[in-house]
Amino acid sequence: MPTMTAAQRRASEKAEYDAFLAGCPSRQLLDRISDKWVTLVLAALESGPQRYSQLARTIAGVSQKMLTQTLRTLERDGLVTRTVMATVPVTVTYELTELGRSLQAVITRLKSWAESHMEQVLAARSSYDAP
Amino acid sequence: MPTMTAAQRRASEKAEYDAFLAGCPSRQLLDRISDKWVTLVLAALESGPQRYSQLARTIAGVSQKMLTQTLRTLERDGLVTRTVMATVPVTVTYELTELGRSLQAVITRLKSWAESHMEQVLAARSSYDAP
DNA sequence: CGGAATCCTGCCTGATACTG
DNA sequence: CAGTATCAGGCAGGATTCCG
Predict the structure, then answer these.
(1) Cβ distance B58 to B50 under 8 Å?
(2) Which residues touch A31 (CB under 8 Å, ≥6 apart)?
(3) Strand D lies under 7 A from the Cβ of residue B65
């Protein structure tokens, strides 16, 4: 993977195991959960199990590709469960696991912060753009 | 902006003002702070004001471009302050604003979650990959 | 030292078609 | 319904170079 080469080289130059910020697994996990689609999916699953089409409708602007991809990685990481009902047509529901709910609690705070500080940020942008 | 067209169209199809998940400013803000570089920069600034080169060293794997770009947007959004000291050579320090610290408190929880649940996620991946 | 400018690659998006 | 597959296009992001 050529995209990681330089990053790993820079990491190696540090020549120390930095549990805070390095190429260690916790850093990779932090990178993964610091993703807008992950955040939105977890936030959308707050109100209980949801079907695929419900999620697609709730998260305005997500493409099928990214929604599926995000749900797959979340499932792989043990944050959501995927349940297939053998109805006609098939019904698929996604639900947070206990692990997922523990992360979702943090995500909720992030969402709350965004909503409650939105105006302050917009004000800061105005004064920055037109001083 | 052609990239927003389809997203906005899907959002419009909902025909309702969804403060939770839509094309409203809070959603855009949530998208922005759900970024790995934003998360890492805010986490790195936890220990007080830092110089540009310090940040680059702390956040292993970040490119100058992304570090500069992230710091600029954070400054524009009123989350960090940029201070230029007229030394030779020039010294630039970045520091969290009060607004930035309020977000950083949430980011810290996210980082803590990643560190404390890393093993559970790795275990989930193992059982998913090789069942 | 702290960037800005440039070029370039790869992923994401958007659109469309097809399946079980 | 819930995807998978494919392809064009654009933009995020990496590598490199140069400057005050």
Answers:
(1) yes
(2) B36
(3) yes
- B90 CA: nearest nucleotide by C1': C1
Task: For residue range B34-69, list pLDDT tens digits in order.
Answer: 999 999 999 999 999 999 999 999 998 899 999 999
**DSSP state at residue A90:** -
Q: What is the pTM of this model?
A: 0.86
Q: A118 is written with which tokens? A: 């939105």
The answer to whether the beta carbon of residue B53 comes closer than 7 angstroms to any atom of strand C is: yes
Cα four-point dihedral sign B19, B70, A77, B130: positive
Structure tokens at A43: 């936030």
* Whether the Cβ atoms of residue B97 and residue A120 lie closer than 8 Å to each other: no
Smallest Cβ–Cβ distance between A34 and the set B7, B36, B102 belongs to: B36
Q: What is the pLDDT of residues A25-81, one digit of tens each?
A: 788 899 899 999 999 999 999 999 999 999 998 888 899 999 999 999 999 999 999
Distance CA A111, CA B116 (A): 21
Q: Per-residue DSSP letters for chain B?
A: -HHHHHHHHHHHHH-S--SSSSSSHHHHHHHHHS-HHHHHHHHHGGGS-EEHHHHHHHSTT--HHHHHHHHHHHHHTTSEEEEEE--SS-EEEEEE-HHHHHHHHHHHHHHHHHHHSHHHHHHHHHHHH--
Task: Name, in order, each residue with C-beta under 8 angstroms of A73's C-beta and a sequence gap of 6 or more.
Answer: A32, A38
Token pair recorded at residue A76: 């792989």
